[in-house]
Amino acid sequence: MKNLVIVLSILLISSDLLFAIDGSGTETDPYRGTITTNTVWNTGDEIFADDIEITPGFTLTISPGAYSGTFLNMLSSTLTIDAGATFILNPEASATINIIVNEGTMILESFSNEVAAASLIHYSYSGSGISQMKLYLSGGTASGGANIWHYISTPIAGVTSLSFNTLNLARYVESLATTTDNYPGWIAYDGFQYSSGATLSSYAFNTLSVSLGYTYHSASSATFSFSGPININSLNANLTYTGPSDFQGYNLIGNPFSSCVNWDLLVSGGGLRSVDNAIYFTNRGRFASYVGGIGADGGTGTIPPLQGFFVKASSPLGRVTFNSGMVRVHNDEQMRYKKKSTRQDLGSADTISYVRLKLQNAAESCDMVVRFNPKATLGKDKEFDAYKFSKTSGGMNIWSTSNGSDFSINGMPFPVTTVEIPLGVNIASDGQYKISSSEIIKLNNYSLKIKDLVTSRVIDLKNSESIDFSVPAGTIEGRFILAVSNTLTDISETDLSENSFDIYSSAGYVNIRTMTDDFAATPGTIDIYDITGRKLYHRSVTGWHNKGELEQIQITDASDGILIVEIKAGSSRFIRKVSVK
Prior knowledge:
mainly beta, 4% helix, 581 residues, elongated, six-stranded mixed sheet, 45 strands, disordered N terminus, eleven-stranded mixed sheet, 4 domains
């Protein structure tokens, strides 16, 4: 079917053009020459071109095909737009062009219904022509009646706040956030503070800065046009940081390019200094997040053009470096609102062990993730965790809690036995709701259950069971628990009747008495974990004690409760639960 589309697309080229353009648009026979009639290239595939000149009075348009985007590859070539000529790049179309000489008009379109944005990567630009980027933003309210706000950015310097013709254009001032709420950070372009109603004139702004982000709301939808040279240079976004709380350190920055930014390439290329790896943005009235190959509520690591997003600084030295030679990419499928891509642009998501929980009613749903990694901790991990940025945005929210913090993506160590993770939900309206799992990846040796502490019901997520409940609007915490158990080690004392070692605790010590001479010359290890899977002790041994001898290990940082002692001797493995007081 794609071949048919290509044939039909070629038929759009007039006979006059055939005398002006040579080549077939393939890698071995690229297009070259001059555009002498209005032309549309929409093969839905990759088009190769050498030097192309668009002559006065005519337009070259790159449009998506019937089933996929169109990519114009001029990586080693020059596009010349003569005075009176026009080059148009439609949404779901992309172009990589080495040199652009523009004496006419270049337009990057943005269509209604928030389809994918046009994406342009170029390395050199000159000329006195017009470069224009368009941005469509929907208006109105989301589910639950909340206003739809859009995080935006611009790669064009000098865009004024008056371009939006609304009071609801704002930026986020991190230093104004308190230790309990980040709402005071929102300041309108005229200095109006949304939380207090006061006017803080010193924070007013007239123009939008490249690499920073802003937020916008309007009762009705509109398309905005920004004109000027499009940034192609590497830029730094310097961040502010006023405190260590979960609500502080957030900075709203923005994509400074006319193409997508691959966040994973930015992170791996050293683009972060004193910044957590997670990003946060709006997704149809709700907050989405992404970190380390996993997204929640629609989050991906591909940041579209004209998109603003939050990052969290961890010190006053926080900085994000947008390296133009490294992070610019195309993704024709990428919606402005971050739909989940079907392409392999989520890094190593298929190698991550995780469970995705979904909260839903008859009208909509949202999700969150608990992921597992040996390097993760129960606390805050910049590589694995994304906070729950807002519990009240949209019609519903779900999150998990660990060590006093709330997460939309919660990185945890693999549990040695069982770990219980509290869940929280917030709903905007009374009704019937359900919690279930939409994904369980690489957790074959673990059971996944949800406990409802109000009804005492326990459901097995691996059996596709769900928790159904009817509640009034509001926040519910302390009712639901996600229990993850290691089916290989979550066993009772009587299952460990092996007589090789006697393992017990007394007076704050873990005692290991060797009951046989079988392992005297056998190397091995001793590992001790708390009930959450946190490793408290590790030691390698070249050989075990003789029969009857005692090993005593003092665990100084263990809280009262259960410890898991794991002994490995050659190919043998012994596990014992002990109670410490």
